[in-house]
Amino acid sequence: MSSQKFFHTISLSRPDRHRLWTYRAGVLIIALVCTIYTVRQLLFPVMHFHFRSAVDSLANTISRPFETARGTAFDVGTAGTFTTARITFTLPPHTPPLPTGTTLTLHRTYAAFLAPIATEQYIPDIVTILTCDDTHYGITDDGTLYALTGKAAADSYIFAQRIASDAHDPRCADHHSDTPVRGFHAGTLIASSDSVFVTEGTTMHPFQDTLSFDAMGYNFNNVITTTAGDRSPHKKARRLDSGGTHPSGTLFFTTDTAHMYITRDAMLYKIPVDARAKKHAIAVAEASRNTVVTCTLRRSLLAPRSYSCTLPLADIADFPGNIFRFTIGASSVAIAHTHIALTTAITTDALEYRFRTIKNELRNAYAQNR
Known about the structure:
The protein is of the alpha+beta class. The chain has helices at residues 14-43, 151-155, 170-173, 210-215, 228-231, 275-280, 348-369, and strands at 47-52, 66-67, 72-77, 84-90, 103-109, 128-132, 135-139, 145-148, 161-165, 181-182, 189-191, 196-200, 203-206, 224-225, 235-236, 251-254, 260-264, 267-271, 282-284, 293-296, 298-299, 306-312, 323-328, 337-343.
């Protein structure tokens, strides 16, 4: 049977050929635009954060509003490189409007590094480490004696004076079976066979994933391998995600001013720079405490209880940190709903960060499914 019965040559007129090429070009352009948009969203997604007071929502790690010396603030905890922040919030019904010209400021840093700086001198929890043969004890400033779980725990008290003794030393004889036991200094990174934790008093916080560990500025070189006995005084507590707050005992070193701080009870204490402490410190910029970007809030004409503004992040984008702190320049502002969108321009640094993030996410997913 001849193939001519199934295939026929159609001759198009010149206007029809033009229309066909126009349709083809239009389909290709639409496909190209859709492809570029999809790739843009995959590699540089817009990060959206919401808070609704009516349902006590803390979606996407946006915090509840809280009061600071600058005004009413809320934190967004996230890692990444962003170029623009867009914020919209709504006041509850029957709430007086904000004063005209009210501003909003934005920090980028670590939440713990924005704590007030203490005026008094920092005194370590353990001021002396006493070693009696192979047993280690910690002595507080008031003379209280603690039995430490081992050498690894003793080494974590980097500001304590070291005293080597023997079993004949009267201080060693003071040890009894009822001597209280302590583990690691607060803020110490410790590892079990399958997890990494940061200690805080008698607790230890696991990390949600590798991205969270990196976002909080920690270094795997500072993780101490421990035994179950070493960790016995510490009980597992809540996980820390990418917007987590550093516990008491965390060391910060400011790369721009070469200062060192340690956290305790939501305060920052300035301490002398110590080579060993610097090795364990989280790098931060002192300028991030005071450098902010600012915008003037605009009231919506269609929704009078809603306010919004857009902030360029160029002046704070390079600061190390895992939180963005938005502060309204007014105190005791009640907020019904907040929406924050963080966007990223296409740059080489942003592209490298995104590929690194995707790689870590795939690695974590593979590890969880093994």
